[in-house]
TrEMBL record:
Signal peptide start and end residues: none
GO-annotated molecular function: transmembrane transporter activity
Listed InterPro entries: AA/rel_permease1
Organism domain of life: Eukaryota
GO cellular component, one term: membrane
Topology versus the membrane: Multi-pass membrane protein
Pfam family, one: AA_permease_2
Lineage: Eukaryota, Sar, Stramenopiles, Ochrophyta, Raphidophyceae
Compartment list: Membrane
Listed name of the protein: Amino acid permease/ SLC12A domain-containing protein
Organism per entry: Heterosigma akashiwo
Keywords of this entry: Membrane, Transmembrane, Transmembrane helix
Transmembrane regions: 37-57, 78-100, 112-135, 142-167
């Protein structure tokens, strides 16, 4: 093995952290659209489940500290066909996540620049990240660090602003809770009337 330059703690944290923090930024809007006023409880439930599974994740990564993620884990605990199916599903999941993330980003940007074409801009954004990945991990890690800092700053400002607003005037929160309406949800082509169960 030839020695490779290590990225360092900040760059590697940025690469891993962007995956988690970017999900927090776009998922909160999607969950709010579906769950309405109960979205904080839904997000807290997901966070609680992930917190309970942290030891399982940690043990699996410690036991098999190699590339491959779920494929490598299943390759060591199940049959090769099962691991191959999991790898294919993981790739599909990554592609879908990239498209959803890109579309969400452009949709948010469209609120500031209404003239944007969502489809064209999403394709352009995905192409830009593909080109960046093609350049190599060292080059893309610097961009990942900038995005990571932006994500952390945005989430910190959002949390601080929400807390300050709640402490200064909680009337909006109380009014939302008292006059809560749940959005209708489409499940398997059927429109279900919004309620606590659909949230």
């Amino acid at each position: 093995h030839s020695d490779h330059d290590k990225l360092g703690e900040w760059l590697t944290t940025a690469i891993c952290g962007n995956d988690i923090l970017s999900s927090c930024l776009y998922v909160s809007g999607v969950v709010t659209a579906e769950a309405g006023v109960l979205s904080p409880l839904c997000l807290a439930a997901v966070a609680g489940i992930l917190y309970l599974l942290r030891f399982v994740y940690g043990e699996a990564i410690t036991a098999l500290p190699m590339n491959g993620g779920s494929y490598n884990l299943l390759l060591n605990t199940a049959s090769k066909p099962v691991a191959s199916v999991a790898a294919c599903l993981a790739i599909i999941s990554y592609i879908a996540t990239a498209v959803v993330s890109g579309t969400s980003a452009v949709e948010y940007l469209k609120t500031v620049v209404p003239a944007l074409d969502v489809d064209t801009c999403t394709i352009g954004l995905l192409f830009a990240f593909a080109a960046l990945a093609y350049l190599g991990i060292s080059e893309s890690a610097a961009v990942a660090l900038a995005l990571f800092v932006a994500h952390v700053a945005t989430l910190a400002a959002l949390c601080a602003g929400a807390l300050a607003f709640l402490l200064m005037d909680g009337s909006v929160w109380r009014e939302n809770w008292q006059n809560r309406e749940y959005p209708d949800v489409i499940v398997a082509g059927q429109v279900l009337t919004g309620g606590v169960g659909t949230a």
